[in-house]
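Figure 3 (text version): C-alpha cells given as input.
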C-alpha cells in the first residue's frame, strides 16, 4: 500500500542551525502518528514543511502519490492537508462561526450554504456552539485551542496535523479531546500529532516517532518507544504517564 504522506530525506536549516536533518518518515491512510521531541527538536518546522509554509533545503515530500515539495500551503490545504497551530492564530475580528466558514469555503471547497451546515455540526462536536457568534479574539486560550481544532476540521482534511492542542487542558478536557480525535479517525482522517502530553497521545496514536536535533531518534509501537532508555533520557521531566 502506498503511503498517504512520505518524507524522503528532508532537511531544513536556518543559518548554521539544522532544524530538520535528513528526516524520512511515512504515514499510511487511516493511521495516527505521534511526534515527540524536546523543545527545539524541529517538530514545528516539520509541520511547516508538510503544510507548505516552508520549503525544504533538500529532500522530497509526497502526498497521495504526488510530489508536493514545491506546492504552496493553500494548494495543500485544498488537497486535504489541514493543520492546527501551537499558538492559536484565529481571525480575531471574525466570529467563531465565520472562522470555520472561511476554512470550509476556501479550504474545503464547499459552497457557503453547504459550509454553514458543516460548520454548525463541527461547533457542536468541539463544544463551541454556544460561542458561535463571539468574536474569536475574545476567546479564552482554552477556547482558542478548541477553535484551532474546529477550524482545521472545517477544511475537510484527509490528513490532519495537530500541534500541541492538549497543553493546558484538564484531565476531563483531554479525554473529550482524544474522543473527538478518535472520532475523526473512525471517519477516515489520518492524523499526525505533535504533543508533550504523552498520555493523550497514547489514547490515539498507532505509532510514535521521536526526533531530536532535527533527526530521527526512534520510531515504533508507542509503549515500546516510551519504555526505551534513550527516549526516557531525552524526556527527563516530561509528562510520560499513560
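Below: residues designed for each position.
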Amino acid at each position: 500500500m502506498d503511503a498517504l504522506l512520505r518524507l524522503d530525506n528532508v532537511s531544513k536549516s536556518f543559518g548554521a542551525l539544522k532544524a530538520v536533518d535528513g528526516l524520512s518518515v511515512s504515514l499510511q491512510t487511516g493511521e495516527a502518528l505521534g511526534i515527540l521531541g524536546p523543545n527545539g527538536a524541529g517538530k514545528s518546522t516539520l509541520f511547516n514543511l508538510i503544510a507548505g509554509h516552508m520549503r525544504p533545503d533538500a529532500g522530497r515530500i509526497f502526498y497521495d502519490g504526488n510530489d508536493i515539495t514545491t506546492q504552496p500551503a493553500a494548494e495543500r490545504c485544498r488537497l486535504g492537508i489541514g493543520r492546527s497551530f501551537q499558538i492559536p492564530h484565529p481571525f480575531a475580528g471574525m466570529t467563531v462561526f465565520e472562522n470555520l466558514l472561511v476554512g470550509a469555503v476556501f479550504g474545503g471547497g464547499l459552497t457557503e450554504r453547504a459550509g454553514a451546515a458543516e460548520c454548525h455540526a463541527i461547533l457542536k462536536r468541539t463544544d463551541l456552539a454556544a460561542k458561535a457568534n463571539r468574536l474569536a479574539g475574545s476567546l479564552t486560550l482554552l477556547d482558542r485551542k478548541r477553535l484551532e481544532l474546529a477550524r482545521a476540521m472545517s477544511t475537510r482534511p484527509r490528513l490532519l496535523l495537530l500541534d500541541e492542542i492538549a497543553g493546558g487542558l484538564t484531565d476531563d478536557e483531554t479525554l473529550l479531546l482524544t474522543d473527538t480525535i478518535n472520532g475523526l479517525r473512525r471517519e477516515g482522517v489520518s492524523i499526525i500529532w505533535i504533543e508533550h502530553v504523552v498520555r493523550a497521545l497514547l489514547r490515539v496514536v498507532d505509532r510514535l516517532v521521536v526526533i531530536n536535533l532535527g533527526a530521527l531518534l526512534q520510531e515504533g509501537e508507542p509503549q515500546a518507544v516510551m519504555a526505551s532508555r534513550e527516549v526516557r533520557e531525552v524526556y527527563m521531566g516530561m509528562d510520560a504517564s499513560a
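The beta strands are 5-14, 17-27, 32-36, 58-63, 66-67, 81-83, 159-163, 190-194, 207-212, 215-220.
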